[in-house]
Amino acid sequence: MGIYIDGQSIETDKEGHLKNLQDWNETVAERLAAQENIVLAQAHWEIIYLLREFYQEFELAPAMRPLVKRVAQKLGGDKGRSVYLMQLFPPSPARVAAKIAGLPRPPNCF
Q1: Shortest CA distance to 47 belongs to which of 105, 106, 101?
Q2: First and final CA of the chain: distance in angstroms?
Q3: 2-100: what fold?
Q4: H/E segment holding residue 3
Q5: What is d(CA 68, CA 62) in angstroms, rounded to the nearest whole number?
Q6: Is the dihedral of CA 90, 96, 98, 99 positive or negative?
Q7: Which residues pair with 89 in a beta bridge?
Q8: What is the mean pLDDT of each run of 10 residues along the chain (110 residues)?
């Protein structure tokens, strides 16, 4: 499986997560988001880059609870709510946002 951008094939797993995390860039993110019927706005990019920082620090993509907590710490309580994240990345914010950020599926995310 994979996605094609500018004639280049980028491998994904059966759920659409990148197999090679180094293949990620903003164009790839936009294509992955389009597959989820999401048009990325500034609010999405804040979460995507926050997730990538989290992954660099802890070497895993956060599940929903740690994601909400991290967003609240870094971006404030108004954004650190599951309802806010659900609006941006339905139907499963931790899983969908991780995919768009080029990260593996978070543990315990359905």
Answers
A1: 101
A2: 20
A3: Arc Repressor Mutant, subunit A (1.10.10)
A4: strand 2-5
A5: 9
A6: negative
A7: none
A8: 87 93 96 96 98 96 95 96 97 96 83
Give me 90's structure tokens: 């339905």
Q: Which amino acid is at 43?
A: A
- Nearest by Cα to 24 from 101, 89, 105, 95: 101
Place of tokens 């019927």: 37
* Reported pTM: 0.94
Looking up tokens 């389009």 gives 34
Domain ranges of the chain: 2-100
Enzyme catalytic residues: 109
- Sign of the dihedral through C-alpha 3, 53, 22, 5: positive
